[in-house]
Design brief:
mainly alpha, 6 helices
Amino acid sequence: MNENHLTDDELAGVVVGAPSRRASDHLASCESCRTEESRMRSELKGFSEEYARQGERPEVFWAKQRAAVHARIERRRTVLWRLTWSTAAAATIMLGYLHFRSPASQPAPVVQDADQALLLDVERSLRRPVPAALEPAMILAAEIDRMASIEQVNEKGETQ
């Protein structure tokens, strides 16, 4: 279509019943645009009749369609429920396995602070009659004293 003829939008406006003033004036004087308008109207009427004919089905057909749609929806619901329950069951099994598989948490052993341990050692050392380093010498001295006392007893017994 050239500049003098109606555009597709203007023709569509005429066909649907909302023509502009320019479109109405042009259609009155242009045979080519009137032919195009007539062709568009007949095509739209043909589409309308075809859709009406397609829609004229017996009630049995529509009942079967409804039943098929409902069956499809029900199958989807069933599949969805099965999927949901199987996922929940798998998650429960996995959590149970992880819970019972892991060892019970043991409390961390108490680690004494080095300063605290040193203070305890000092306190124990102060309570001893002899320092720990001299204990072997103390045992030796006690043994020497015991031997000396035995010798004295023996000497007294021999002199008598």
